[in-house]
Amino acid sequence: MGVAGLVGAGRSELAMALFGVASVDRGEVWLDNHLIHLGNPRRTMRLGMALVPENRKEQGLVLGQSVRNNASLAIIHNLRRFLLIDEKRESEIVQKQVRDLDIKTPSLEQQVGYLSGGNQQKVVLAKWLFTNSKVMIFDEPTRGIDVGSKVEIYQLMNRLAEKGVAIVMISSELPEILGMSDRILVMHEGRIAGELSREEATQEKIMHLATGGE
């Protein structure tokens, strides 16, 4: 599902609210026919939701830490042996993800801040893929990365969808929204202005809704 709209329409705020980072005044979210309580990202993660944020450098990564530490961050509690981290197991599972995602890095100990934008985004994705989430929210997943990395991320998202993972993709790029989405929600001034199927969606219809048209 793609989420479109102009800058300031509330798309990222919606993502943050769903994941439990932003506060919610009213409304309900249901997952697997169960009402979930919002406002706690840790609990939201346990229920099977993941968020790839818009600003990977400030919200998705710890730039001064290694590729290994960043990629394992979401499952670090599963890698503990007594009070210590099982670094051998951590390195093994991160190395596999580095290979699978073709992350270009000299080593697992490379500070993630020194990687290219595309490889940084892949590290963020690796972190969440370890959690086997049921719902993945991608907020501007290809912003600021090269064309080759964009294609790889599109392919990854399609593979996840084929496996039954629900994808919510927020994007300012209409060709991306139109090319990737089975259905599209369009936001205007903090509200859903309309919903379009893949078959009926066009750039003109999306922009009409995004600017307040009926």
Describe the structure.
The protein is built from nine helices and ten strands. It has 214 residues and is α/β, with parallel strands linked by helices. It has a single domain, classed as Rossmann fold, CATH 3.40.50. The strands form three sheets. A six-stranded mixed sheet has the order 4-7-8-1-9-10, sandwiched between helices. β9 and β10 form a beta hairpin. The longest helix has 16 residues. The model has no long low-confidence stretch (mean pLDDT 91).
SSE blueprint:
Layout: E1 2-5, H1 11-19, E2 29-31, E3 34-36, H2 41-47, E4 49-52, H3 56-60, H4 67-71, E5 80-81, E6 84-85, H5 87-101, H6 117-129, E7 135-139, H7 147-162, E8 166-170, H8 174-180, E9 183-188, E10 191-197, H9 203-210
Number of domains: 1
Name the poorly predicted regions: none
Order of helices and strands: EHEEHEHHEEHHEHEHEEH
Q: Give the overall pLDDT as a whole number.
A: 91
CATH homology superfamily: P-loop containing nucleotide triphosphate hydrolases
Predict the CATH topology. Rossmann fold
Distance between the termini: 20 Å
Compute the CA-based radius of gyration: 18 Å
For the biggest β-sheet, the strand order reads 4-7-8-1-9-10
Instruction: Specify the overall morphology.
Output: globular
CATH class: Alpha Beta
Global structural class: alpha/beta
How many DSSP helices? 9
Largest sheet: 6 strands, mixed
CATH architecture: 3-Layer(aba) Sandwich
The total strand number stands at 10
Strand content: 15-25%
Share of helix, binned: 25-40%
Entry summary:
The protein has helices at about 10-20, 40-45, 55-60, 65-70, 85-100, 115-130, 145-160, 175-180, 205-210; strands spanning about 1-5, 30, 35, 50, 80, 85, 135-140, 165-170, 185-190, 190-195. With about 210 residues, the chain is an alpha/beta fold.
